[in-house]
Amino acid sequence: MAPILADSTKPNVPERENYVNSGFVNINNPHLDMLTEDILYHFDLGTKTHDLPSMFGDVKFVCVGGSPNRMRSFALFIHKELGLDGDANNITDICAGTDRYSMYKVGPVLSISHGMGIPSISIMLHELIKLLHHAKCRNVIIIRIGTSGGIGIEPGTVVITDVSVDSFFRPQFDQVILDKVVVRNTQLHQELAEELLQCSQEISSFPTLIGHTMCTYDFYEGQGRLDGALCSFSKEEKFEYLRKAYDAGVRNIEMESSVFAAMCHLCGLKAAVVCVTLLNRLEGDQISSGHNVLVEFQRRPQQLIAKFIKKKLGTSS
Ligand SMILES: O=P(O)(O)O[C@@H]1C[C@H](O)[C@@H](CO)O1
Ligand SMILES: O=c1cc[nH]c(=O)[nH]1
């Protein structure tokens, strides 16, 4: 068993100040100072090949989500919502030189895909956080707009995460570093979550709530599904587990929030996780709603975040 450590990478400032440290991103890696060039390999960007401050210095909102198509749609949507000049269809993928992630910039909004699961979003976040640092961005808000499985709530409900919990309902992310397990905090920014909930009250077309989000390493066995290629537990055991999760305050399950919360927290980025629920896991495992319903569900977090961004920019009517 690897030794378990409390996190030693924590910036040496009180919790609250972590978010107001001149508004810059807190990078906590002394080795970076030794690099003459930093290549953000999975973005196909670099400090010598690209002028990152002029390309990204004005970014104030970063929205991330699993699918490249969703993040392109979000970029087109936010372009329209912000009433920006030019033809949105000309928006190009900044990461077109690689097929790992897609990235679109629309005014002060960056929309990036992160793929599925903790390893994929974690790589993207390392490079994104360094990009924000190199670009000297300040006061950035980062929001994951995703999909999830709900527990005991109506499909289509949008859940704003207060804390991400692991499969044992613990508010922590266990990062393996060398031969040690480093335990990291997975609290999301509470005021931001409240602000988003308030914003949602102005949208009457779908329910929104704040709750715990369980982050797993897998979609099937890891989320207690009976319909994977492998399953070693009974239907009764599945329901007992999901009911325990509900009683612990979990309202939805997805696969990225824990590392997202942990890394953003450590780097002083104000972060939120806003996921729509595609089904109620107490009613089934298969995502059987029609294509149009699922498309409409996926737009819900986008609508909420567009409203929030417009409010923040003072452009909402
Ligand atoms: O960002 P998305 O909505 O793709 O994230 C959830 C969690 C997994 O990555 C994926 C599973 O279908 O959906
Ligand atoms: O059930 C679900 C649906 C979407 N994403 C998940 O991780 N789980």
UniProtKB/TrEMBL annotation:
Q: Which PROSITE patterns match?
A: PNP_UDP_1
Q: Which GO terms describe its molecular function?
A: uridine phosphorylase activity
Please list the reactions this protein catalyses: uridine + phosphate = alpha-D-ribose 1-phosphate + uracil; 2'-deoxyuridine + phosphate = 2-deoxy-alpha-D-ribose 1-phosphate + uracil
Q: Which UniProt keywords apply?
A: Glycosyltransferase, Transferase
Q: Which domain of life is it from?
A: Eukaryota
**Subunit organization:** Homodimer.
Q: Belongs to which family?
A: Belongs to the PNP/UDP phosphorylase family.
**Entries under Pfam families matching the protein:** PNP_UDP_1
What Enzyme Commission number(s) appear in the record?
Answer: 2.4.2.3
Described by its record, this protein's role is as follows:
Catalyzes the reversible phosphorylytic cleavage of uridine to uracil and ribose-1-phosphate which can then be utilized as carbon and energy sources or in the rescue of pyrimidine bases for nucleotide synthesis. Shows broad substrate specificity and can also accept deoxyuridine and other analogous compounds.
- What cellular-component terms does GO give this entry? cytosol
- What name goes with this protein? Uridine phosphorylase
InterPro entries in the record, alphabetically? Nucleoside_phosphorylase_CS, Nucleoside_phosphorylase_d, Nucleoside_phosphorylase_sf, Uridine_phosphorylase_euk
**Might you name a Gene Ontology BP term for this protein?**
UMP salvage
**Binding positions (phosphate):** R100, R144, I145, G146, T147
In which residues is substrate bound? Q223, R225
Pathway in which this enzyme or protein is active: Pyrimidine metabolism; UMP biosynthesis via salvage pathway; uracil from uridine (phosphorylase route): step 1/1
For this protein's source organism, the top of the classification is: Eukaryota, Metazoa, Chordata, Craniata, Vertebrata
List each copy of the Nucleoside phosphorylase domain by range: 60-309
